[in-house]
Amino acid sequence: MDHARTFTPVSPQEGIVASSVYMAGRRIADIPIEEAGAWAAKEGHVVWIGLLEPSRELLLRVQAQFHLHDLAIEDAEHPHQRPKLEQYGDALFIVARTAQLIDRRVIFGETHLFVGKGYIVSVRHGPSTSYATVRQHWETCPHSLAKGEDFVLYAILDFIVDNYMPVLEQLEYEVEEIEDKVLLKPMTGPEIERLYMMRRDLLRLRNAALPLVEVCRRLTSSDLPQIQAAMHPLFRDVTDHIRTVQEKIDSLREVLAFAFEASLLVGQSQETAISKKLASWAAILAVPTALAGIYGMNFSDMPELRMEYGYPMVLTAIVATCSFLYWRFRKNGWL
Predict the structure, then answer these.
(1) What is the CATH architecture of 274-331?
(2) What CATH superfamily classification does 1-145 receive?
(3) CB neighbours of 227 closer than 8 A, spacing ≥ 6?
(4) What is the pLDDT of residues 98-146, one digit of tens each?
């Protein structure tokens, strides 16, 4: 039969990760781009194409097969788009941001999705986990995959959102380490810089994830005929996952803010304690300094200088006064 043919897809070096056609949830062929449109037009068939940083020439080949809008192709060619959903005729164009933790920094990529009758095309830019995992997982569940291209869209969006959590879990572990150390000593310059970078990365991750709430809201509205009503609960589930990610991000940013404030308070407390000690010793040393200054003025008529016990009396007064001051400062917690 015609649908049993298997073609060797274009090599991944040219930007094509996968190009397959499915019927009843089962992959029946790997196809070249030039045949994707014909397969998608067949009733009950879904073409799923995965591209990785494709060239303009490859995007134009895909555009020719599915009659994609020029503006959508232009956006897919140039990353750094904000997360959004656009409708161009019978096709949907969706942008989502991906995130990975590389060298302790959150690095963002983008996924652009074209969804229409009988096809879905994913275009990946920058760091992101391959969607081969999604494909392999759902190929073992043909009943679910048979729901069509809107189910594939749900599977990819759910995978993107779920991959935010490992990033947050690694950051959370580091935040807990900071929290454990913050009350022991003030933060050093590099530690404060790291804290600031983490807060900024978390804010950027929040800005990447939160717009997907609006994307999923539109995917559950009745004004998008490309999405079956039966799929609406699944997209609402993705929204719940995004809200969980948002709450985790807000919680971590709040902990980092408290950690920074606590570090400042610890530093101020230590500075105050040092200032008290210095002031206490200055007051104690002021007594012998004052007496030595008085009797070091070298006036010819100073009766005390001719007293037989003048020297031991002055020493006794110095020791007694200094001892009293030390006791008082010690009692008040300054020493």
Answers:
(1) Up-down Bundle (1.20)
(2) CorA soluble domain-like (3.30.460.20)
(3) 150, 153, 219, 220, 235
(4) 999 888 899 999 999 999 999 999 999 988 888 988 999 899 989 998 9
pLDDT of residue 2: 39
pLDDT of the residue at 5: 38
Q: What are residue 288's DSSP bridge partners?
A: none
| Fold agreement (1-145, 274-331) | no
pTM (whole model) above 0.85: no
* The residue count for the chain: 335
Nearest partner of 27 among 9, 53, 54, 10, judged by Cα: 9
CB 114 within 8 A of CB 120: yes
Q: Where are the domains of the chain?
A: 1-145, 274-331
**Spans of the chain below 70 pLDDT:** 1-13, 264-270, 295-310
Angstrom CA distances, 21 to 118, 123, 218, stand at: 9, 17, 27
Ramachandran class of 75: left when φ > 0, alpha when ψ lies in -120 to 50, beta otherwise:
alpha
